[in-house]
Amino acid sequence: MKSLLQWLLVLLCGFPTLGTEPGRPTDPNPWPAGEIDDWRGFRRFRFTVGGCEAWVVEPAKPAKGRPWTWCMEFPDAFTERTGVTHLLSQGFHHLHLVVGNTFGCPDALDQFDRFYRIVTNRGLAPRGALIGISRGGLYAYNWAARHPDRVSALYGDAPVCDFKSWPGGRGTGRGSPPDWQKLIRDYRFRDEAEALAYRGNPIDQLQPLARAGIPLVHVVGDDDPVVPVPENTAIVEQRYRAAGGRIQVIHKPGVGHHPHGLDVPTPVVEFIREAATTAGSRH
Q1: What pairing do the DSSP bridges indicate for beta strands 35-39 and 52-58?
Q2: What is the pLDDT, as a whole number, of residue 271?
């Protein structure tokens, strides 16, 4: 029951004094102490999580349920073409945590866990859409497999889904020897043989995502020489459908690894919006 003072404030000011949740845009700074700047015309909050720079971009008016997208790597690349700014305009928050070029290794996933706890404790939805651009596919799929209950959808854009393909270069792609050696160190493999025998790539851990009902959308250039479709997205598509999962693949004929995204990203935007509205009904 409201106190007499609270009722008077409602009558005089026209709004209640209770019910504003922590982290709402009415707060001058709902996020941990840090800097506030502009990102693509939206207010961005920058702070530190576990020694890593984190940021949250706020929409002008949050959508119901406070949905969000999280670009795991390359957050300033092709933001219009990947639909990020469109979703911000429609009320989605947008997240990023700087873990560097670490290929979705276990230490990076631990940092993601810390960041997730902060943003959800501050009022964001318990499930969000992960965006994996290029090598960011490793980050997105690995974290989704660790926490399928925290993901509403996964959008892979020319995503690496098997590190033997890139940076390992064990297929038709050229690979990247320096990145391959760094990946071996970041994953703490004893040697290359252990890395090649590893069975924890995205293509290997799709069952938890399918059981959780996470919808996947991939955008790929059919002539990608860096992250070849047959070694990455095609395997995910075949295995995910076989596991009973839902996946949509948007092909760009004659296109290579770049540019990422779509000239008109409406299909991806609608896919993520639909997933956000149905995420609460999943178990």
Answers
A1: unpaired
A2: 98
